[in-house]
């Protein structure tokens, strides 16, 4: 059975727990489907010291208050400690204001990891008005390309090369203004 850890923003906890078959939505709740839902990095991963996960999903970046500490080199090191061999980390990095794909790719590269991204731009303005569905951007990070082989069957996954244009974020350094500038200049 695939063992998955899902880290979500507090305001998304109940929605994600419902999707996974649990109405409890509490920190580190085992949903019975091999999925653990945690509402914070510290309370989730740190309580699960003995576990190794095939897939770690982070969905905490779409609001205006981006949890920078989840995108640092040190955080990636802790994810790797919890990632089973052959597993990967999925980041839902959709954000209206910030370019987070470059940050993820650069931080991943400092750890010797590879990054693939996929933009789902199929949502229309009508979708947004009708049911609040919008485009999404996901980054998948793994120790090597082979670990991402399960994504090969899905169209739209592109290698995101770390080109050195972004200084990797650490516990001592992050640059939200540069991420904002990159996003705005890309429009």
Structure description:
This protein has 187 residues and is an alpha/beta fold. It has one domain (52-185). Helix content is 26%, strand content 24%. It is built from 6 helices and 8 strands, in the order E-H-E-E-H-E-H-E-H-E-H-E-E-H. The chain has helices at 13-19, 41-45, 73-82, 101-110, 125-131, 176-185; strands spanning 4-8, 29-30, 35-38, 53-59, 83-92, 114-120, 136-142, 158-159. An 8-stranded mixed beta sheet has the order 2-3-1-4-5-7-6-8, with helices on both faces. The longest helix is centred in the middle third of the chain and has 10 residues, at 73-82. The chain is globular and about 40 Å long. The N and C termini lie far apart (42 Å).
Distance between the termini: 42 Å
Helix content: 25-40%
The main sheet orders its strands as 2-3-1-4-5-7-6-8
The tally of beta strands, per DSSP, is 8
Order of helices and strands: EHEEHEHEHEHEEH
- Mean pLDDT, all residues: 77
Give unreliable regions as ranges. 9-33
**What form results from the Cα inertia axes?**
globular
Oligomer: single chain
Strand content: 15-25%
Structural class: alpha/beta
Radius of gyration: 16 Å
The number of distinct helices, counting runs of at least 4 residues, comes to 6
- Compute the number of structural domains: 1
> Largest sheet, described in full?
8 strands, mixed
Keywords:
187 residues, alpha/beta, 8 strands
Q: What is the element layout, followed by pairings?
A:
Elements: E1 4-8, H1 13-19, E2 29-30, E3 35-38, H2 41-45, E4 53-59, H3 73-82, E5 83-92, H4 101-110, E6 114-120, H5 125-131, E7 136-142, E8 158-159, H6 176-185
Parallel strand pairs: 1-3, 1-4, 4-5
Antiparallel strand pairs: 2-3, 5-7, 6-7, 6-8
């Amino acid at each position: 059975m695939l063992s998955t850890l899902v880290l979500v923003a507090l305001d998304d906890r109940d929605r994600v727990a419902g999707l996974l078959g649990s109405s409890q939505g509490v920190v580190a709740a085992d949903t019975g489907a091999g999925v653990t839902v945690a509402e914070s990095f510290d309370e989730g991963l740190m309580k699960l010291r003995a576990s190794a996960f095939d897939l770690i999903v982070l969905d905490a970046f779409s609001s205006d208050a981006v949890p920078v500490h989840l995108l640092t080199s040190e955080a990636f090191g802790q994810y790797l400690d919890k990632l089973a061999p052959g597993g990967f980390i999925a980041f839902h990095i959709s954000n209206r204001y910030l370019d987070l794909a470059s940050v993820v790719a650069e931080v991943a590269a400092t750890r010797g990891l590879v990054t693939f991204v996929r933009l789902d731009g199929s949502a229309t303005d009508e979708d947004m008005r009708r049911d609040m569905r919008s485009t999404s951007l996901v980054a998948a990070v793994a120790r090597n390309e082979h670990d991402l082989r399960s994504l090969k069957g899905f169209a739209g996954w592109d290698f995101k090369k770390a080109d050195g244009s972004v200084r990797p974020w650490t516990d001592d350094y992050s640059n939200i203004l540069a991420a904002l500038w990159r996003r705005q200049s890309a429009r």
